[in-house]
Amino acid sequence: MEPQVSPDTWRAVLDDADPVWQRMPKTWYEGPFLGNGFLGSGIYAEPGGNAVRFNVQHSEVQDHRPEFGSLFGLARLPIGYFTLEPVGTITGLDWRLRLRDAELTGTLTTTAGSLTLRAFVHSSTDLLAVEITPSEGERGFRWVFHPAVAISPRAASKPIPPGYVANPPATIERHGDMTAAVQPLLAGGRHVTAWQEVARHGRRTLYATVAHSHPANTARDRALRSVRAARAVPYDVHALPHRAWWQRYYQKGFLSLPDARLQSFYWLQLYKVAAAARKDAPVMATSGPWLEPTPWPNTWWNLNVQLEYWLIHGSNHLELDAVTRTLSEFRDQLGAEIAAPYRGDSYGIPRTTDPRLVNGGATSGDLGYGVGIPGQDPPTPEVGNLTWALHNVWLSYRHTMDEAILRDVLFPLLRRAVNYYLHFLSPGTDGRLHLPATFSPEYGVNAPDCNYDLMLLRWGCRTLLDSAELLGRRDPLADRWREVLARLTPYPVDGDGYMIGAGVPFAKSHRHYSHMLAVYPLYEVTGRTADERALIERSLAHWVGFEGALQGYTFTGAASMSALLGKGDDALGYLGQLMTRFIQPNTMYKESGPVIETPLSAAQSLHDMVCQSWGGTIRVFPALPAVWRDLAVHDFRTQGAFLLSAVREKGATRWVRLTSEAGAMCVVRHGIVGAVEVRDSRGRPMRYEQTGEGEIRVPLRKGESALITAAGDDPDLTIRPVAPNEPAPRWGLPAA
Q1: Which of 364, 368, 366, 374 is nearest to 339 (CA)?
Q2: Residue 224, SS3?
Q3: Among 88, 175, 496, 592, which residue's CB has the most CB atoms within a 10 Å radius?
Q4: Which among 242, 240, 223 has a CA at the least distance from the CA of 121?
Q5: Cβ atoms within 10 Å, residue 493
């Protein structure tokens, strides 16, 4: 009675998703990428040269001059890159990024011969290993390191603030057979790239690492120690634990759907998020660990972070949750970043910060974006970002039911985030509570009773009351939270749907859905009544109806809102527009520079089509398009800490199995037509209550499972990949 996924199934699905390169990638948006949340390498042709660039970037490497703000003085700093320089002229390549091993393999062909390549960034240590097996004519190939200028990448596109200068140039040092590029920082400390090439049995392996230290100068010693330890071990020995980590990672969950292009895209996003994130790594910056020239050289909290991490919940990868850890670890900074009169009882987070949540006191868009004060401008009164970020923490709690997250992180931080709003709420002549003007990302106009903030405030007060009850606390602010829920002014609405705020209609093309957060992702407004559903539909159509400023995440948001309404065909249509208009050959994404949140959020849109679990009910296959007649999911994590496995065959749900990790009440909208049977893991009948059409309530204790089938059915519980409706080209740059 246990669903089974064979090793061959994992292998087949992952191998089918491998991107390939039979043409030379020319940019980061086209090439392979490797990473472990800290060290990252994007690989593509050296511009204007007969070489291949292996970027070397690291998510901890940043400047430390807060007087110049988060976008200059605290920005992530470029490190540099290696060039693989062959003897002959490059004439072709045949590369494959093997997802199940997180390893780039293949051959580079030149007029002098060939270079056979294997490369990975180790899953658990900051090591880039590149093994080259040259043919006779290519034995003279070489590696060259090119240090970058240690200046904020924003300097290439925005005005440089007075007094801000680049850090001094790096110096190249020899340490026996090892080499180190030592980059001093004006603020103290340094970052160091160290490397050595080792020859064994006709193969040459480059071992490289990066270390960062501030204010101490320990980075060089640490980097050299790492290379010294790495060089003693052959490539294949390093690869064993690396490959094992990745294979364990993938086997935590499974999804197969009949759209071959989207399925391979999905598995690439699972690869990407684990290459970019770890629980103990910095929260992902806009480009993850693959820093490229960008106006966005730090961490963005008004959408990017939230979207980057959504897919970790359903895919069962909470080990990547850096958001909960970071907000908890650096909570004191959340007070320091708001205006002094409110620091005693309130928290906020700026739009832009470094990994320790520091903005440096910047209040202009040139240097960084502070929290602001409702009713004042400047600085821009963008005040809701912390509450939205804490929604991610709430999702981590709900998907694990780990009371420590609720007690130690969510409740105390959300309490202070809501407190900041409470300072500014005031009764109007209508008896309702109102907010002064605040800013709705990224519309460009301040508005009183801004929907972005009203929606987050309502969710925050409701969540605090629910949390206090779960924790058994009598909080002295509970009555105030209840008053807010009872008296808060309704969300401003006009004939086109949700407005930006009172007196400010949604009247221009705008990529962000900040004015509709109550619909998604908060699920405060879900279409429970005909009027509410019509409002959502009207707002969605009006939002996406303005062409001009729409971007990729517009379409992931629209897909997820359509999934909420059960409109699977519409959701698929929006994802189709995303794929054809915005997603790059390697599944990366750009908006004036590299940003990675949109493809990752598209994976969450797929989740929303396959399973939704808001409001205490698990909805199995709630928004599948008509052409997806077959689908298989295994160990999909839902709110309530359930693991879902389910199979759809010939347009109908065949079976659903849920395992409880926390003993929460299980309410499931299974979608099986007609009478059902519910059995435990030994095949014995279980008690259940019919709560609606196609919906039941099953009392499951911690560790118990329930299998739901049509009455009299005894299905095979083997999970297999579903057949694609039609073949699709691989991602990457396959032969034209």
Answers
A1: 374
A2: helix
A3: 88
A4: 242
A5: 14
Q: Of how many residues is the chain composed?
A: 736
| Whole-angstrom distance, CA of residue 38 vs CA of residue 483 | 45
Helices marked H in 164-315: 219-231, 235-250, 260-276, 304-309, 311-314
Provide the residue type at 523 as one letter: Y
Whether the CB-CB separation of 589 and 28 falls below 8 Å is answered with no
- Sign of the Cα torsion 214, 290, 520, 612 reads negative
Adjacency order of strands within the sheet including 190-200: 171-175, 178-184, 190-200, 203-213, 128-134, 113-121, 103-110, 90-98, 20-21, 732-733
Is residue 561 helix, strand or coil?
A: helix
Q: Which of 16, 98, 20, 42 is nearest to 736 (CA)?
A: 20
SS3 708: strand
SS3 of 54-79: the string is EEEEECCCECCCHHHHHHHHCCECCC
Q: Which residues contact 173 (CB under 8 A, 6 or more apart)?
A: 179, 180, 181, 182, 220
Q: What does the mean pLDDT of the chain come to?
A: 96
Q: Who contacts 233 (Cβ-Cβ below 8 Å, separation ≥6)? A: none
What are the φ and ψ backbone dihedral angles of 130, each rounded to 5 degrees? -130, 115
Helix count (H) and strand count (E) of the chain? 17, 38
Is 122 in contact with 205 (CB distance < 8 Å)?
no
Are 658 and 613 in contact by the 8 Å Cβ rule? The answer is: no
The DSSP output letter for 166 is P
How far apart, in Å, are the Cα atoms of 480 and each of 125, 157, 415, 455?
49, 46, 12, 17
| Backbone phi and psi for residue 5, each to the nearest 5 degrees, phi listed first | -125, 115
**545-564 tens-digit pLDDT:** 988 888 888 999 999 999 99
Check whether the bond before 297 is cis (ω within 30° of 0). Answer: no
CA-based radius of gyration for the chain: 26
User: From CA 490, how far away is CA 447, in angstroms rounded?
Assistant: 14
What is the CB neighbour count within 10 angstroms for residue 197? 17
Q: How many beta carbons lie within 10 A of that of residue 566, not counting itself?
A: 16
The pLDDT score that the predictor gives to residue 361 is 74
d(CA 105, CA 132): 10
Per the DSSP assignment, residues forming a β-bridge with 53 are: 44, 83
CA distance 325 to 346: 19
- 350: phi then psi, degrees, rounded to nearest 5: -65, 165
Contact 307, 378 (CB under 8 A): no
Cα angle at 605 between 599 and 609, to 5 degrees?
Answer: 150
